[in-house]
Every structure is written in structure tokens, then in C-alpha cells.
Specification:
Length: 174
């Protein structure tokens, strides 16, 4: 049975994730990947996430939204850097609100929190990607003032291509 937010005012809490939340974060990642039709690409496991999020050199941070004590949404983000601005930025890698909690302002809560955090940390910008078929997300992002970077195309090297490119560094004459 689907759980919905009660009609009375729910208790909403936003908190930074801790190591003990690793399984929850992985569950959110898997739900998001299924929604994006990319579940086959998830290779992360709890140990890898724990090390990379809460180890000696954390690569990202996670914020969790709870409604009446139940995990309802999350955002995973990290800092990047703009040479043009000469300042770091805040990059949102993932934002996901569980279906039962959509339409109640949790996504907007996360985005406004991250915008405030970016300002508090001296960031020059706050940015993210969105799949071009995800019309509900695109509409939401336009509503909060986001602008598409239409002249930019994402480039990526992974897997075997990444290994081949890296091997060129060790090969004289390339």
C-alpha cells in the first residue's frame, strides 16, 4: 500500500547524511536510476559509497529529507570550480523525491537549501544536468529560475575508453 503524506502538517527534517545512511543512499540511487531507465548502469555498492562519501577524502555530500521520520528525498552534491569566475561552484549530481512524497515541496526545499549553501560557501554558481525527456523536472527547474545551457554538450569517457586514454600517458611518443 502506498504511503501518502498526511493531510495534517507533517514534520519535515532536512539533515546531512552520515556513514550509517549508506544503505539508504544506495537505495535512493537505485530508485533514481530505475526512474531514469538507467538501473543497468548502477555498479555502486555500500562499501564504495561509504568510502567515497564518508572516508578520508569525501568526494561528495548528501542531504536527506525526512517526513514524519521517514526518508522521503535526497540530494547528492559536490564542489566544482569555474576558472571564468575564479570560484568554486556547487554541482548537484542527484536529486530524488520518492513518488509518494512528490508535489509537496520537498524538491523545492532541497533546491533552496542547496542554493543557500552555495551562497554561504562562496560559490559562484549552482548547476546540474537534467535528462531531456524529463519534462516534469524541466518544468520545475524553469519555475525556480534555472536556465538551460543550450550551447553546451556533455562529454564523457568511461570504461575501456577511459583505460585506453589513461594508458596513452605511459606510452612514449603519444
Amino acid at each position: 500500500m502506498a504511503r501518502s503524506i498526511p493531510t495534517s502538517t507533517p514534520a519535515i527534517a532536512l539533515r546531512f547524511a552520515e556513514r550509517k545512511d549508506t544503505a539508504l543512499i544506495l537505495a535512493f540511487v537505485r530508485e533514481l536510476a530505475a526512474y531514469e531507465k538507467l538501473a543497468h548502469e548502477v555498479v555502486a555498492d555500500e562499501a564504495t559509497l561509504a568510502d567515497n562519501l564518508f572516508g578520508e577524502h569525501p568526494g561528495a555530500e548528501v542531504v536527506i529529507v525526512e517526513v514524519d521520520g521517514h526518508a522521503a528525498a535526497f540530494a547528492l552534491f559536490f564542489h566544482n570550480f569555474s576558472t571564468f569566475l575564479g570560484r568554486r561552484g556547487l554541482y548537484l549530481e542527484d536529486l530524488y523525491v520518492k513518488p509518494d512524497y512528490r508535489g509537496h515541496g520537498l524538491g523545492r526545499l532541497l533546491m533552496s537549501f542547496l542554493a543557500r549553501l552555495a551562497i554561504e560557501r562562496g560559490c559562484g554558481r549552482f548547476e546540474w544536468w537534467v535528462l531531456d525527456w524529463n519534462e516534469p523536472a524541466i518544468r520545475f527547474y524553469r519555475e525556480i529560475g534555472a536556465v538551460a545551457m543550450d550551447q553546451w554538450t556533455v562529454q564523457r569517457v568511461t570504461g575501456e575508453s577511459l583505460a585506453v586514454l589513461a594508458a596513452e600517458f605511459d606510452t612514449p611518443g603519444t
